[in-house]
User: Which sequence fits this backbone?
């Protein structure tokens, strides 16, 4: 068993925060890496894989060239080997160098089939980077533009059959200010098979400070089912991530993405609890019965109310929630509400784009999701502007540029 204590104490051990790029967005890099603790994702040619502790990465690019984006999924410690430190590492830590060389030259092709084992925990398949990721060399935006007009019409894809008619104990009242006009209950939609892909985790509520159990996803067990879509929706085999992204406190109903529980941020509690008090009059959630889609909708709308309890991340939270809601409505076959939510998502990301200091990589991904959501909402004003940004970004992702180009051709064909 490799002793990592000397490596952690070594000055070449670098600490990376969750979502922080390790080698820079899109860089091929002249360094090799050995993960000591945490989790790292590797994104290459439209495919993502995950790297576990005591695994090496970056060696193939170091010796052979290529483009792979490595990003810390959680706070991680990484031992970095450069050309200058190669000889020293070979002398002091030969086992590390062996692992790096093995990963560089003994990794089977990801396309060899189900039996191929990549250097990550899971089989890589098509996905994209997270839409709001920090870049170490961020370039500040100087221009601003007016927000999009709120127009919705009838163009949206719906591929899911209508919901079943049976009612489960988890069904809720779809009334009151928590839900927008047009939202309804969608009884009978339950996925028991999802339980195999999640595990119980104890959380502490950042609002009321009480503890409770909820679920977290086994990301290492997920595989991607189909190519990434123009609105950056990731499709997994037999699993919809939106069902478990929001955690709800059963004590006070505070709801938010799970990382806001594990890494709490400052809250405007007076404003937050005023919103929750109003929400409690119009919502009921059964934390004992099996999770159904009505529970998932309620958790998202509660999170939307709770977003006003934050300051700096508020815009991004709201935009991501509306993206999830648009996909949830699409999954239950409600085209009208899917169009509405997609339009709200485009508006929220447009506000984020206009009022935030973004890196070029962030501008590209946000431009693409704005265009994709505008298309799903049936909106056409300014869509070509955002597709142009996504297509021509100098520091952008090739997968995003191709998606923008594909959507551009679709829109041209429909004109």
Assistant:
């Amino acid at each position: 068993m490799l002793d990592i204590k000397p490596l952690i104490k070594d000055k070449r051990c670098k600490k990376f925060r969750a979502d922080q790029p390790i080698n820079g967005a899109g860089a091929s890099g002249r360094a090799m890496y050995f993960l000591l603790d945490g989790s790292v994702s590797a994104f290459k040619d439209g495919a993502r894989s995950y790297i576990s502790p005591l695994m090496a990465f970056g060696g193939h690019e170091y010796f052979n060239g290529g483009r792979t984006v490595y990003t810390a999924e959680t706070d991680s410690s990484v031992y970095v080997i450069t050309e200058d430190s190669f000889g020293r590492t070979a002398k002091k830590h030969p086992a590390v160098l062996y692992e790096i060389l093995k990963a560089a030259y003994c990794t089977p092709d990801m396309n060899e089939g189900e039996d191929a084992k990549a250097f990550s925990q899971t089989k890589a398949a098509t996905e994209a980077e997270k839409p709001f990721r920090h870049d170490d060399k961020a370039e500040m935006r100087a221009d601003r533009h007016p927000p999009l007009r709120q127009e919705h019409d009838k163009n949206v894809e719906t591929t899911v059959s209508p919901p079943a008619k049976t009612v489960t104990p988890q069904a809720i009242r779809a009334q009151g200010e928590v839900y927008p006009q047009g939202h309804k209950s969608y009884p009978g939609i339950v996925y028991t098979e999802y339980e195999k892909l999640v595990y119980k985790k104890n959380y502490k509520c950042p609002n009321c400070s009480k503890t409770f159990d909820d679920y977290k996803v086994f990301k290492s067990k997920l595989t991607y089912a189909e190519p990434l879509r123009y609105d950056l929706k990731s499709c997994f085999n037999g699993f919809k991530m939106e069902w478990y992204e929001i955690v709800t406190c059963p004590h006070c109903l505070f709801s938010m993405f799970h990382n806001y529980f594990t890494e709490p941020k400052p809250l405007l509690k007076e404003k937050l609890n005023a919103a929750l008090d109003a929400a409690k009059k119009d919502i009921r959630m059964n934390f004992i019965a099996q999770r159904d889609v009505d529970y998932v909708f309620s958790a998202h709308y509660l999170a939307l109310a709770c977003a006003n309890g934050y300051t700096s991340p508020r815009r991004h939270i709201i935009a991501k929630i509306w993206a999830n809601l648009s996909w949830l409505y699409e999954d239950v076959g409600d085209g009208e509400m899917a169009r509405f939510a997609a339009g709200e998502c485009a508006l929220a990301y447009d506000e984020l784009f206009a009022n935030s200091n973004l890196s070029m990589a962030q501008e590209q991904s946000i431009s693409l999701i704005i265009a994709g959501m505008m298309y799903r909402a049936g909106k056409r004003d300014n869509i070509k502007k955002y597709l142009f940004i996504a297509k021509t970004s100098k520091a952008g992702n090739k997968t995003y540029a191709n998606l923008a180009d594909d959507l551009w051709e679709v829109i041209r064909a429909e004109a």
Remarks:
- Residues 192-414 form one domain.
- The chain has a mean pLDDT of 77.
- Residues 154 and 378 are 6 Å apart (CA to CA).
